[in-house]
Amino acid sequence: MPEVRIIAKNFMDMVASMPAMKLDKLYENGFICEAILRSLPPLAKKYVLQLLHIDVPVAAKLLEEWVLPDGFSKHRVAIDRLVQLRVFVEAADRKNEKTYKVTPTFQRSLQKLLVHGGTLPREPMPSNITVRLPTLEDLEAWALEQWECFLLQLISSSQVEKPSNISSSLMKVFQRRLLSQRDRDAPKLTESGFQFLLMNTNAQLWYIIREYISNSEERGVDAADLISFMLEISFHVIGEAYNINTLTDFQRSIIKDLADLGLVKLQQGRKESWFIPTKLATNLSVSLADSSSRKEGFVVVETNFRVYAYSTSKLHCEILRLFSRVEYQLPNLIVGAITKESLYNAFDNGITADQIISFLQQNAHPRVAERAPSVPENVTDQIRLWESDLNRVEMTESYYYDEFPSRDIFEGACDCAREWNGLLWEDSKKMHMVVKAEVHPYVRDYLRRQK
Amino acid sequence: MPSAPSKLYSDDVSLLVVTLDTNPFFWSTFSVPFSDFLSQVLAFLNSILLLSQLNQLVVIATGCNSCGYVYDSASSKNHVSPTASMPALYSNLLHNLEQFVARDQKLSKPDHDTRGIVPASLLSGSLSMSLCYIQRAFRSGSMHPQPRILCLQGSADGPEQYVAIMNAIFSAQRSTVPIDSCYIGSNNSAFLQQASYITGGIYYKPPQLDGLFQYLSTVFATDLHSRAFLRLPKSVGVDFRASCFCHKQTIDMGYVCSVCLSIFCERHDKCSTCGSVFGQAQKDVTSANSKKRKA
Amino acid sequence: MSKIPERPLNGDVEDDDEDEANDGLEAWERTYAEDRSWEDLQEDESGLLRPIDDTAIYHAQYRRRLRALASTAATARIQKGLIRYLYVVVDLSKAASERDFRPSRMAVIGRQVETFIREFFDQNPLSHVGLVTIKDGIAHCLTELGGSPESHIKALMGKLECSGDASLQNALELVLGYLNQIPSYGHREVLILYSALSTCDPGDLMETIQKCKRSKIRCSVIGLAAEMFICKHLCQETGGTYYVALDETHFKELILEHAPPPPAISEYATANLIKMGFPQRAAEGSVAICTCHEEAKIGGGYTCPRCKVRVCELPTECRICGLTLISSPHLARSYHHLFPIVPFDEVSPSSQNDPHNSLPNICFGCQQSLLTQGSKPGLSVTCPKCKQQFCLDCDIYIHESLHNCPGCESFRHSKSVIAAQ
């Protein structure tokens, strides 16, 4: 399953793979520098801050001296990441020793940001305009609702009461890897589709954004522009309204899509229209960092295989349904049971035991999250056992030989197959044998030669 | 006394509570003007917020007559005047700081400063407030950022705050909150040395104030997660001297009441704290002690 | 007094009995049988399950406790026996292998003694603890009086094996011999953790008890089996306490009751002034020859303020000049006993509605809003000295852990008032 590990980190790889010219152009924007900085591992962040005001190249040896022996692998990861993203430029000094220096554009932008602060290209709505803005709670609820609605539409277009305005072509792009449609059947979730559902919101959001960006070239949009706008949006203040007229045409076309995803809420004033960033938007840059999973869980798993999920979300219920039998539902509580049948269903859909367990662990209710393990051992063991049950029979393509003319030839053929490490089974009495498919040509050649 | 055990931190999200010494008596006699110092500190504070969106920053001013919160990045009242030329942090903090300094000045009694002694800043107050704030963060659930305290202190220790500061240090140790201290005054601060040593924080006295930002960002911007991997300044010794209860002097040798452990710089007949009357002479004690050692 | 309970040898059968005896509960039900967490939930009008808001009740309980404490402190001037010499006697006779505590009495004792020793040194920084074990009818000194929790714990964990009978008299005689040597200002105490239901002594135990009484040794016993007359008599005579633990949590409660310093009783120990030095800690990485191991050491040691000689650990006695060396934070740990902060006054929500009451409605300590949802003022407290307002959470934190009033500490004016008192 090479495509499975779709997480936000890939986005930074996307940035890293951009040509140096484009990166330099991106780094002229202070916000992008900030977002990049925040996405770095903790040690790398520190190095950037430490070298920020140093204009001469610093020897790699000197950097290494700051690190304790324990942290050396972390140090390497940090430096590699910095060089990859061209935040550090590597060079050699006169003594041919490796040196590092912060990329001048990045350095300038970040220095400016530190001293003068970041200024958005637009200001929030002045307070003298009386437009009723939603409260932060309402906004968050709206954003989550919008997002879940989008997700539901993504996985089963039929179930949605109020479909969003995302064009069906764009929806197709998102669904490309998550759904598979055979002939005229209803589209079915693929393996990665199920795994997508088990990811946390930020990772899902990044997956969608990544698809959105990688598809941009087809729509005739510059990926760098798109990335910089996305990151810029994430630095707006939640709940403040910003005038849409401050956006370029290109940005205005994007903001509509973002509204459908729940990233911004559009509000029509008397004369002008405004957009209000939601928590989802500001989370974009947060979730780039490792600390993205700071969210309280809601699932309690008991040793009797009962699952209690304190949630009002329809989506959570759907996710639980993927691998458990939902028994009761109260307004904010879902009670289910993990059974052999429900798990076999999940395995059939390509969900692995580890994914289910890590979902249960990551979303453990704070009450049980402190316990170690947060999911009872007997449950995790049983889930794994049931999975390995399915893997009891292993398929190997093979060839079956019989009716050997003589015992010598039979034994010779056995030896030949053994030499190639492909003899699966032999019955010397009746002179039958089975060999692996890839060894078949050699055995066939051997037999031909015997004739 | 062992210093606090090192805890494992899974990520670098921090809650930094900074106590900022605004003692006018110190700054008026110090070689560097407060404004220069402040501009470097502000850049440092801004860089903390820059490192992660989830980082939280609280600044408490340590005045000479009072203490007060001057900045809280989590507060919703932060949008006073979002001017385009200055970050919100600067405008808010400076605005509140000005108000605080003016209020602090008004509180000072005219007869206080005539003696020519520089009164100490109320570090015990700002430490206590920081700890209360951090407890609030602990209460907010299991997803709270990792808290630490940074004391930016210039004025000398106030021996009369000894007990209060020690209480604060122990409370910080119990809740594993490291106290970092950056001391810019002329001598070392015994209080802050002890605070950092006991709580597992870093005590550092920058050799010069020109590149203060560099020192701050190199040493004190290090989050608790990264501290496990980096070489940070080692302690240059800790001054474990105590203050006596009778004259509030800092002493390295003294008399301790066996009942309540009060410290005195000279012999008394009766303990002024617990009222015990001291009986036997000192000699008996030492002889008993040595007997025990032989046993 | 010589009844040694003979239990059936087949421990396995007993185990099964245990499981069935537990009211027929399933294993997963038993994990909740104690904390009854389902009672914390209630259903609101829209059918949502919510945790019950019990902060107000919790706070009321806490305040009652605080007031009770404050009233006892006000009647008597606080004199606590802060310098304690305590022997913990652990009964490792055959009775300690009983499995009525899980996994066994001995394991439970080991676990709880560890927590107790840590807590004890946290609360009594200048005190000393020693460990004595009783086994095969004789008492054995496991560790001598000392101030390092780690060495005690390590010694005990290595010796957790039981056999033979218990002997109270042998244990008391041994401890008596040690405790008679300590300085007169120290409080002598013995804490016996007794599993056996009998004592097998070489002489007259009553006489030993009288000796303990004369030596002013306070003996306390925590039993793990049933109440015994001799233990009760011992404790009554010497001024200690006697309890029998019902289960592990109760045992923990009982043992931790011995951690805070007992009130000082002048007849038990005479007050005295002790000359002490507060050494400085040397820089990390400095090299010096220490007097305790007589070898050159790299790293932080301490320097005696009188003769400038280097020692490795505190508290100790200077080998050269005999000065008692301690680190001052050790002393300071107990100062909050001496200067307790007064209980805060409760502010009723109604009084805040006064127009001329200009309280800021945020907690002075943590800046939390004191308004409840719907912006009505909630419960809060004020410090009677500095008149600052605090939220209930800060109130508890300030009195239980911080022991400073942030309000009083951050105003010079109020400080000078306190100093003048």
UniProtKB/TrEMBL annotation, chain A:
Q: Where in the cell is it found?
A: Nucleus
Q: Does Cytoplasm appear among the keywords? A: no
Q: Which GO terms describe its molecular function?
A: ATPase activator activity; double-stranded DNA binding
User: From what superkingdom does this record's organism come?
Assistant: Eukaryota
Sorted alphabetically, which InterPro entries does this protein's record hold? Answer: Tfb2_C, TFIIH_p52/Tfb2
Pfam entry (one): Tfb2
**GO cellular component terms given for this protein:** transcription factor TFIIH core complex; transcription factor TFIIH holo complex
What keywords would UniProt list here? DNA damage, DNA repair, Nucleus, Transcription, Transcription regulation
Example GO biological process: nucleotide-excision repair
- Asked if the keyword Ribosomal protein belongs to this entry, the reply reads no
Q: What does this protein do?
A: Component of the general transcription and DNA repair factor IIH (TFIIH) core complex which is involved in general and transcription-coupled nucleotide excision repair (NER) of damaged DNA.
Family to which the UniProt record says this protein belongs: Belongs to the TFB2 family.
Listed name of the protein: RNA polymerase II transcription factor B subunit 2
Q: Give the organism, scientific name.
A: Lupinus albus
From TrEMBL, chain B:
Question: Which biological process annotations from GO are given for this protein?
Answer: nucleotide-excision repair; regulation of DNA-templated transcription
Question: What Pfam families does UniProt report for this protein, alphabetically?
Answer: Tfb4
Q: Which UniProt keywords apply?
A: DNA damage, DNA repair, Metal-binding, Nucleus, Transcription, Transcription regulation, Zinc, Zinc-finger
Domain of life according to the entry: Eukaryota
InterPro entries the record matches: TFIIH_Tfb4/GTF2H3 (IPR004600), vWFA_dom_sf (IPR036465)
Instruction: Look up the record and report any one GO term of the cellular component aspect.
Output: transcription factor TFIIH core complex
Q: Name one GO molecular function term.
A: zinc ion binding
Report the locations given in the UniProt record. Nucleus
Q: Can you state the subunit structure given in the record?
A: Component of the 7-subunit TFIIH core complex composed of XPB, XPD, TFB1/GTF2H1, GTF2H2/P44, TFB4/GTF2H3, TFB2/GTF2H4 and TFB5/GTF2H5, which is active in NER. The core complex associates with the 3-subunit CDK-activating kinase (CAK) module composed of CYCH1/cyclin H1, CDKD and MAT1/At4g30820 to form the 10-subunit holoenzyme (holo-TFIIH) active in transcription.
Q: Report the protein's function.
A: Component of the general transcription and DNA repair factor IIH (TFIIH) core complex, which is involved in general and transcription-coupled nucleotide excision repair (NER) of damaged DNA and, when complexed to CAK, in RNA transcription by RNA polymerase II. In NER, TFIIH acts by opening DNA around the lesion to allow the excision of the damaged oligonucleotide and its replacement by a new DNA fragment. In transcription, TFIIH has an essential role in transcription initiation.
The text of the family note is: Belongs to the TFB4 family.
Q: What is this protein called?
A: General transcription and DNA repair factor IIH subunit TFB4
Organism the protein comes from: Lupinus albus
TrEMBL record, chain C:
GO cellular component term, pick one: transcription factor TFIIH holo complex
Segments carrying the region annotation (Disordered) are: 1-24
The record, for Pfam families, names:
C1_4, Ssl1
Localization annotation: Nucleus
Swiss-Prot/TrEMBL GO biological process terms: DNA-templated transcription; nucleotide-excision repair; regulation of transcription by RNA polymerase II
The main location class comes to nucleus
What are the residue ranges of zinc fingers typed C4-type? 304-321
Q: Reply yes or no: does the keyword DNA repair apply.
A: yes
VWFA domain segment(s):
85-224
The reply on keyword Mitochondrion is no
Q: Where are the transmembrane segments?
A: none
Listed GO MF terms? zinc ion binding
Compositional bias, Acidic residues, is annotated for 12-23
Q: Which PROSITE patterns match?
A: VWFA, ZINC_FINGER_C2H2_1
Keywords of this protein's UniProt record, alphabetized? DNA damage, DNA repair, Metal-binding, Nucleus, Transcription, Transcription regulation, Zinc, Zinc-finger
NCBIfam families named among the record's database cross-references: ssl1 (TIGR00622)
The protein in question is named General transcription factor IIH subunit
Taxonomy, top ranks, is:
Eukaryota, Viridiplantae, Streptophyta, Embryophyta, Tracheophyta
